[in-house]
Amino acid sequence: MRRHLVVLLAVAPLLLAGCSLWPAAAADAPTWHVLDARPAVAAPARGEWVLGVSVPSAAPGVDSAAMVYVQTGHAVDHYATHRWVDTPARMLAPLLTRTLEDTGSFRAVVPVATAARVDLRLDTELVRLRQNFLARPSRVEITLRAQLVDVAARKALATRYVEVTQHASSDDAPGGVAAANAAVARALAQVAAFCVDASADFRPRAP
Predict the structure, then answer these.
(1) How far does Cα 45 stand from its chain's mean position?
(2) How many CA atoms lie within 13 A of 56 on its CB side?
(3) If DSSP codes are grouped into helix, strand and coil, which group holds residue 101?
(4) Per-residue pLDDT for the chain (207 aa), expressed as one digit of tens each?
(5) What residues form DSSP beta bridges with 179?
(6) Burial class of residue 2 in the structure, from the number of CB atoms within 10 Å of its CB (0-12 exposed, 13-18 middle, 19+ buried)
(7) 148 near 120, Cβ under 8 Å?
(8) Burial class (CB in 10 A: 0-12, 13-18, 19+), 62
């Protein structure tokens, strides 16, 4: 009995030390965030063209799930315990498709990865998405490059850079996430308007 008691007293501190690790691990666990903006867009008469939407590509620096910020010069950093659930470029793909559907300007809007035949294709690149602390309050900056392509003719009809700046409500990651969603909503609306305008005079090449 005495031997068992000695062993128990020796093991107890180790068990307590092991338990004390759990709160620290939980404190270091990342908080995950999403881009889920849905802008209000005009809905003119439905068009006759099928628009394919490519998954946006991403420039270096915004091609991961890290939440990027700058606070000194050209130095780029990212939050240690706040991350996107996916890369921002991949999260933009369904948002672009849904926003373009909401315009009502196309017979159909489909992901390019589907087998559907498309008349036009929207290619986009996420050039910048970051929270800028060089001024206060901080602001989120997003830059998208959008290009509308005539698929049959294999040529670009129009290209546009969309740049949006949105002030954050607080100088931290949650404030940056809210500002990012507001900025994305504005950028999506501008990309949708660009597609509607650029496709207005589109006529497919005769077979």
Answers:
(1) 29
(2) 28
(3) helix
(4) 554 444 444 444 444 444 443 344 455 789 999 999 989 887 666 778 999 999 999 999 999 999 999 998 888 999 999 999 999 999 999 999 999 999 999 999 999 988 789 999 999 999 999 999 998 999 999 999 999 999 999 999 999 999 999 999 999 999 999 999 999 999 999 999 999 999 988 888 655
(5) none
(6) exposed
(7) yes
(8) buried
